[in-house]
Structure formats: C-alpha cells, structure tokens
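Because discrete structure vocabularies remain unfamiliar, we first show an illustrative case, written as a sequence plus integers encoding its fold.
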Amino acid sequence: MRDPNPVQTGMCLLTNACAGALVACLLTACASTGYQKGDVAAASMQKLATDVQVEEQAMELTVTTLKDLLAEPNGDLRPPFKRFSKSVDRLIATAQRTQNTGRCMREKNAAYLQAWDQELQTIDYQHIRDLSEARRTEVTNRVETVNRRYQESQDAVQPLISYLLDIRKALSTDLTPSGFDSLKGIVQNADDSVAKVQTALEALTAELTNSSARMASVVSQTNDQNTQ
C-alpha cells in the first residue's frame, strides 16, 4: 500500500479545519444576531445624537452671523453677508445629513425589532416568552418615542431654514442699511424661532443618548448609573 500523499493529506486537513471554522462562525452569528442588531440600532441612535448636536451648532452660528451682519450698518457689507450666506449653506448640509442618519436609524430599529419578533417564535416556555414580549413592547415604545420626537424636531427645522433662506434672498438684492432696517423685526422672529428649535434639539439629543445606552449590549458604568 502506498503512503498517503503528504500534500493531499495536508490539504484535506486544511479544508476540514476551514469548514469547521466556517460552521462555528455561522453558528455564532446565528446565536448573536439579535443583540448584534440591537447594538447596531443603538449605534445609529448615538450617531444621530451627534448629528443633531452639529445641526444645533450650525443653527446657532447662522443666527450669530445674521446678527453680526445687521450690527454693521456702515462699511463694506459684503464680507459679513458672505459669512451669513455660508452659514446658511452649512446649516442646510447638516440638516440633510441629519435626515439621512435619521432614516438609517429607523431602518436599524425596525430590523432589530423584526429580529426580536422572529426570536420570540422559537421560545418554547410561555413564561419566558411572555417576559421577552413585555420587554419588546417596552423597547418598541421607546423607539416610537424617539422616532416621534426626531420627526417633530425636523419638521420644525425645515420651515426655519426656509425662513433664513428668504432673509438671504431679500438681503442679496437689497444689501443696504435701509434693507437691514426693513428686516429687523423678521430677524428677531428668526432668533426666537431658533431658540425654540434648539430647545427641542437638545431634548432630542438627550433622549437619543439615553435610549442608545439602554439598547446597547456593552454599557459603561456611567451610562448604567444614568439609566437606572
């Protein structure tokens, strides 16, 4: 009898090892899919919280540059107007990024809850299934609250951006001290509206951060204390 080809033997062992590793990997992935989707959903909430903060800062900068513009009734009005115009463009870009992140967050949340539903169907013991269903309802309510507050805040942001765009359009054709005087009341209204929207965005950021900490499988000690 001929001795086995060492090369073929080594290839067979390598193939079997790779196949075993693949099976183990698939089994691990299947076992952890639910909480991994929860971690992804939590990360999307935290990403949205960061984008909302940037959006709020861009809004504050826009109003500040507008006030600075109106505070210069003399001299060259073009540089402060350009700063205001750029800040409006930056606000529009941050608002669009926030919308994209918010859409992604909703998709990740939906995928997590769907995975939870599928997992519930495989639990045999009624008492355990009831407990898990109760927790899913609790998480669902939290997700729906976050989605609602996010939508309400963005519904307030878009009209404000349109308001600022109209101010920019008016000044772009009447960049004069008299043009400024005619818009002083309008600018005050914009300032008041921004303050209200900022309050809503701050509350949304806190809600997103808190919800993200509650849904993540790895929670820092600080977050754990804050969510108890």
